[in-house]
Amino acid sequence: MASQIRKHLHTGQLGENHAAAYLQQKGYTVLQQNYRYKRAEVDIIARKADLLVFVEVKTRTSNNYGYPEEAVNSKKEEMLLSAAEEYILQEEWQHEVRFDIISVTLTSPPEIHHIEDAFY
After folding, report:
1. Domain that holds residue 93
2. Is residue 120 part of a domain?
3. For 39, which DSSP code?
4. Angle 5-11-14 (CA atoms, 0-180°, nearest 5)?
5. Prediction pTM value
6. How far is CA 82 from CA 10, 42, 63, 71, in A?
7. Is 62 helix (H, G, I), strand (E, B) or coil?
8. Among 51, 64, 69, residue whose Cα is nearest residue 114
C-alpha cells in the first residue's frame, strides 16, 4: 500500500514538472507550484503578461481508465477556486484570472493536453 502511494505521488510530481516546463515553453512564468490554502491546493500558478492562471494538473501513466482531465470534478473545482481566491487577495491581484487543466499521460514522449478556461 505504501509503495502504491509513493508511486502515485511520484507520477503526480512527474506530471506537474512536465506541465510547468510546457507552460514555460509557451511563455508563461511559473510563480508557484503546490500552493496550499487550508485543505486546497493549486498545482501551478503561472502568469503571462496581465493574466494569472491557476492550473490543475492531472497525470496518468496510460489512458486505460479514461483521460486524466476527466478526474477533475466539481469538488476539486471548488477547492481550487477557494485557494485561488486567497492567493488573489494575498497578492492584491487586479487583472484577469483564468482556470486551466493540464492533463499529462506519461507515454514516451509524454502527451500534454492544455485546456484553457476549463471552468470559472
Report:
1. 2-115
2. no
3. T
4. 140
5. 0.90
6. 26, 10, 29, 18
7. coil
8. 69
Which residue in 115, 37, 23 sits closest to 83, CA to CA?
37
Q: Going residue by residue through the chain (120 aa), what tens digit of pLDDT does each one get?
A: 555 555 556 778 899 999 999 999 999 999 999 999 998 999 999 999 999 999 999 998 887 777 788 888 888 899 999 999 999 999 999 999 999 999 999 988 999 999 999 987
Q: How many domains does the chain have?
A: 1
**Which CATH number fits the domain that encloses residue 64?**
3.40.1350.10
Cα separation, 14 vs 48, in Å, equals 23
Q: Are 54 and 45 in contact (CB under 8 A)?
A: yes
Give pLDDT, residue 1: 55
